[in-house]
Amino acid sequence: MLHRPLIQHCKSCGNKVVYRLPDDGDTKERAVCTACSTIHYENPLNVVGTVPIWGDKVLLCKRNIEPRLGKWTLPAGFMELGETVAQGAARETTEEAGAQFEMDELFTLINVTRVGQVHFFYRAKLTSDQFDPGHETQEARLFAEHEIPWEEIAFRTVKETLLHYFADAKTGKFQFHHLDIA
Amino acid sequence: MLHRPLIQHCKSCGNKVVYRLPDDGDTKERAVCTACSTIHYENPLNVVGTVPIWGDKVLLCKRNIEPRLGKWTLPAGFMELGETVAQGAARETTEEAGAQFEMDELFTLINVTRVGQVHFFYRAKLTSDQFDPGHETQEARLFAEHEIPWEEIAFRTVKETLLHYFADAKTGKFQFHHLDIA
Q1: Which of A14, A45, A116 lies nearest to residue B15, judging by beta carbons?
Q2: A16 neighbourhood in chain B, CB within 8 Å
Q3: Per-10-residue mean pLDDT for chain A, 182 residues long?
Q4: Which of B9, B29, B174 to mutate to test the interface with A (most CBs of A within 10 A)?
Q5: Does B135 contact A25 at a Cβ distance shorter than 8 Å?
Q6: Does A66 touch chain B (CB under 8 A)?
Q7: I need a surface site. Which of A160, A164, B74, B135 has the fewest CB within 10 A?
Q8: Strands A101-112 and A177-181, bridge-based pairing
Q9: d(CA B11, CA A180)
Q10: Residue B105 region, left (φ>0) first, then alpha (ψ -120 to 50), else beta?
Q11: Which of A92, A102, A101, A98 is nearest to A131 (CA)?
């Protein structure tokens, strides 16, 4: 169900682990070291990004890396230690698009339980329509709603976020959307 | 700065890792296996919980485990693989308080960058004032605002969430609060 490699060895001492119920009353099987008894927990990861806006257009990036090489995405990536959710979203927008922008509010929080991820997208106001994408991006381009390559969007959380963005834009009132994707 | 043990060994093959820049263009040092070259990423963890409400009172749990044994907290814990943020918050409320409740909206999202965590609290409507706390909890009890043991609250994110809850309750309008704790 979850596409992550199982833990084979203890990250503390390097010996083999087994998946079993720990001795501390925990009700879930964990990777427990057969030598030093360290318990290794695996938890969901946060993916953080933005909806960068220029007038009635949104900035998309054409991916230059797998997965989904050549497909279009909002700038986003894994949240890192040492940063807030919003700081991570801003960092990814700089790295992937080389955009200049001001961060706005949290717009979507989307659970992707099947892969153990939570995706967060903030609205961001572009302050320039010039971009300088990094090595992960083939091209960064602005799209009005009718220009969005809906069949070429890299990830479902990006598609859901764009759909909610253009729907809210019509009302002039942006709300926070909390969604689950099976 | 971050209170996590460094990775010493590869969780795939068990050999030693070194912290260095990977060869894939990454700009952060990662634990890279000296034998099989697997890159081990470390990312923030989500802590998920609720503000369980009964009339003008909030449910707090007296901790029966370290850290902060004997201090009072809202029911919360680490989000697990296979669940949404809200499902994790509900699970912790069941495990720690044995409460019966209906989940309401996301109330606070608090970055705790220093320890690499993001805390999420949902409002929850208690449907009973009888509780059956698990082994992690000495006592589960309802508190009106003037009864809250402010000096005995286990975690700052819990205190901030309670402060915002009682402030919003006075206005009758609950908003989503997005905070950073240094």
Answers
A1: A14
A2: 14
A3: 76 94 90 94 96 98 95 97 97 97 98 97 98 95 98 98 98 96 87
A4: B9
A5: yes
A6: no
A7: B135
A8: parallel
A9: 31
A10: beta
A11: A98
